[in-house]
Structure formats: C-alpha cells, structure tokens
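Researcher: Here's a chain I'd like modeled. Treat it as a single chain, no partners, no ligands.
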Amino acid sequence: MENLRVLIADQVLSKLNLRKEELKTEFARKNMVNSFVVDDLLDDELARRIHSAFPDKSQMKQKKSLREYKNIAAQMDNYDAILEEAVYAFQDSRVVDLVSEITGLKSLVPDELLYAGGISLMSNGNFLNPHLDNSHNNDRSLYRVLNLLYYVTPDWKQENGGNLELWDNGPKNRQRIIHSKFNRLAVMITNKSSIHSVSKVIVNDSRCCISNYYFSAIPAEGRDYFHVTSFYGRPDEKFKNLILSADTAVRNLIRSVFRKGVVKTKHIYKK
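Model: Modeled as a single isolated chain. Structure tokens:
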C-alpha cells in the first residue's frame, strides 16, 4: 500500500503546486482566521474509493457532550488500509514542506500518533461547538499550528450542515462558512484566536473527513502560550456559553498544575 500513499501525496502536491502563489495570498489575508481551500484535490475515482472505505459510525468512538457530538477514530489498522494511506499521505515530507512554504509557518512536524487526528464522521444531529484547539501536542513539547481537513462525502450539499465555520471576529459575531464539499481540502491555522466549529448535520447521511494536524516548536503567533481545548456557546447559546466557559477554566487550571494532564488520552494511534 506504500505506493498508494505516494500516489495520494503526489496528487496533493500537484494540486497545491498548481495554485501555490494563489494559496499564499489566500492564507495571508488579514483580520481573518488564516486559511485556504483547494477543490478537486484528488482524482475523482480515488476520492470516492477513500469515502467508500469509511467504517460505520458504530465502529468508531462516539464523543457526545455539550461541547460536541461526533464519531472519531485514530487506530487506523482497524479499518480499510486505504484510510491509513490517505491520512499519512498528508504527512509526506514533500507535502509538509510545501504547506510550510504556502503558509509561511516554519519547522512543521506532522502528527504521526494522530493525537486528535485520523478520521471523523458526522451524521444527523452531530455538531461541534465553537472552540480553540488545544495549543500543544500531548506532552506539550510542540505547538499545534495547522489543521488539515479533507472532506470525502460525494454530493454533500452545504444545506446538509456539517460545514466548517471560522469565527473571524469571535463567537459573538457572524461566522464564515466553508462548505465541506466532496474532494475539498481546507487548511486553517490554529492559534489563540482561531475559533472554529462545525454546523449541525440535519440530514440522514454522514459527512466523512480525513484529519491531520501539524505541530511546530515555534508558536504560530510568535510568542509562548498555552490553553486546553476551549469551547464557547454560539451567539444564541448564552447559558451554554457560561457552562462551557466554566468548564474551560477548570480544565485550564488542572493543566496548569498537572502539566501533562490527569487522564491519559486514548485518541492516538498505538502502532
């Protein structure tokens, strides 16, 4: 399957190189959560093969709380091998170097253990509230600086929900919607202001996604900081926002005392 991983990486490289200068400009836009989008990333047939290999949500870990409701998986050897090849194609050193050139972020390190990466599936009723991603990797040795999301559900319509939302002006203002359309790659910065979310899925279908994070010893904002994954209520969820703010404060306090946390994360690829 190694050849398949290289094939996928080659196609990603080809599409990124084709639009490299345009993507640099797109990512560097001011007063926004830095991001860029690439459509028709892979050959249509290959993208459909990746989608058809996704497991049923019953075979994935469900996360359900006030913060989020989704299905995720990182133990890639439990599933069709093409999924692992697709995930790790984005960790090809050539892809990492090109993304570094496009974004201007240096010393990028892909997430080999898939700490919060891997695959995700969101079906009817699933959502992800506005939040900031955890600022670091699991042992706090590196900063989380980029989020790469590759969407693979054919014919997924924006009105279905399950779309990426970027809150350029904070969670009290209107969000920017990035349609999670088939064969689209969305890349966004993760820093102290990159609040994002996923709108609730409202159809009896599943939005499938390949997820990767890149880390770096250099923080995306150029100065040291730390925070746990921090959730917010939507503009119409004032009471929920109070609960989530208190939850974030408690978890930040715990991590300030226990640097590596109290509960060991289970969302990693145990090879």
